[in-house]
Every structure is written in C-alpha cells, then in structure tokens.
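lol ok so funny story. i was supposed to be doing the assay writeup but got distracted and ended up predicting the structure for this chain instead. priorities right. anyway since i did it might as well share w the group, maybe its usefull for someone
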Amino acid sequence: METQKIILLIDDDIRNIFALELTLKARKYRFLSAQNATEGLQLLQRNSDIGLVLLDMMMPEMDGYEAIQRIRSSDKYGHVPIVAVTANAMNGDREKCLAAGADSYVAKPIDVDRLMNVIEELL
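and the output, tada:
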C-alpha cells in the first residue's frame, strides 16, 4: 500500500492552522504546518512525502505569491500542487493566484466541503 502524501499548511495565523489541522485529522489526512513561508519552504526541502501545499497568500515577510514563485522554481518540489488560500477575496484574486502558479484557489472563510474536493482532486 502506498504511503499517503502529507499536506503542508502554511499560514501565519495559528487559529487557521489549528482549524485546518482539526479538519484534516478528522478525515485521516497526514499534515505538517508552518507559520511562515520560509519555514514552509524548509519543510518542503526536507520532506519528499509532501503531496500538496495549502498556502495562505497574505503573510508578512514572504507572501504567498513569492512562495509560489520559489516553489515552482525548485527542481526538487516544483511539481507539488499548491492551493492558494486567501481572506478578503476580491474580484480577480482567483485569477491572480492561478496566474502566479497555484493549482487551485479557496477563499476564507473556508468552505470545508469545497476544500476537501480540491484536496481529493490534487492529492
């Protein structure tokens, strides 16, 4: 049996991470989390079992757009699917995230059923 891939959560708000971890745990997904993009990129570098990244787009220091650029430029993990997650969704945000290299987009507050469908499609 193939080992289930890990979902990497990258979000600067610990409350969002906590809620997502509970959701993923309830559905028996394996996951790791990082509170900033730099830490998330380090986890990607060290962990070949990561099969999907849930990436908050609005973070201090390095935002999701820069993180996507860095992930996509990597030979090692540039192929890993990325789901952009953003609050204050505005017209054009989805297109901007997809154009930046995200594979999918989910707005906050997160619709759990939609998120699970996206994860199942990409993982």
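The radius of gyration is 13 Å. The helical segments are 14-26, 37-46, 64-72, 93-100, 112-122.
back to the writeup now i swear
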